[in-house]
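Suppose a colleague, Dr. K., hands you the sequence of a protein chain of 313 amino acids and asks what its three-dimensional shape might be. Before reaching for any lab equipment, you can write down a predicted structure in token form. Begin with the sequence itself:
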Amino acid sequence: MNMIVKLSEHVPVRRQDRYVTASPPMIELMNRVERVARLPWPVLVTGETGVGKEEIAKALHASSSRARRPFVAIDAGGLPESLVASELFGHERGAFTGAVGTRYGVFESAHGGTLFLDEVGELSAASQAKLLRVVETSEVRRIGSSQVRRVDVRVVCATNRDLRAMVEAGTFRADLYHRLACVVLEVPPLRKRPEDVVELVEHFVELISAEFGRVSLTEGARIRLAAHPFPGNVRELRNLLFAAAVNSASRFIDVTDIEAAVAAVSSVPMTSAPTSLRQAMDMAKGNITTAAKALGIPRTTLRDRLRAEARRQ
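The predicted structure, expressed as tokens, is then:
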């Protein structure tokens, strides 16, 4: 069930299945997900690595008429070329060396539901042609079989690559792109939605507490997190917090725990303070005193700057 929970007068937090967001661009995206979910068309989800493209696909499935049917996910880019056809379409016993039994492919496994193909931009030209045929005909044929089977599947693909540029370069089929991109949903990176860092921290702390016992973040740890650009997006934030919890000597995750986790997990160093008034206020949840401390300026200075910014808007 979808729900909107108000944590304060100013911060609407949307939780759809496991998707947690408080930022305007993500709330708008999730509203669009609900509208698109009712349609039978394929969907292409784009965005940087780690932004949560599979969670968007799961939200599409959960909001659709297929919600009670299977949701099947596969990393198309991680498959050896020799196994792509078998994984997608299945095979019969004895179809090739090692085929000791009949196996359903992911299209048959997802019959009636949703098939999520991640990293679709990594498929070879030959695999793209095979995928195009299934998307166009809704028919699959297992390797080693002469029987054609009808499948009823809603296809959702994801990529962190620019497929339109790949089409222009001749490395991705134009006809397949236009089949898959009936609807395009772009997930913004975490650095462009600082409000979500606040809510995701709370969400992941709850998950960590369920596994390690109750933990919490000190104010300094939160301030440091607010300043981080998160090149690995939501996945990096999750991994960073879990790493900090594992290495913390107490139930309080402090600045040193966060810095050690960043050094181990992140590809960029940690900044020491938030880079904007908005970022500081978001992380401080509207508390001017806390935000001013994070920015390293007097409370009165921050108050005056906020008033000036409000007048400009």
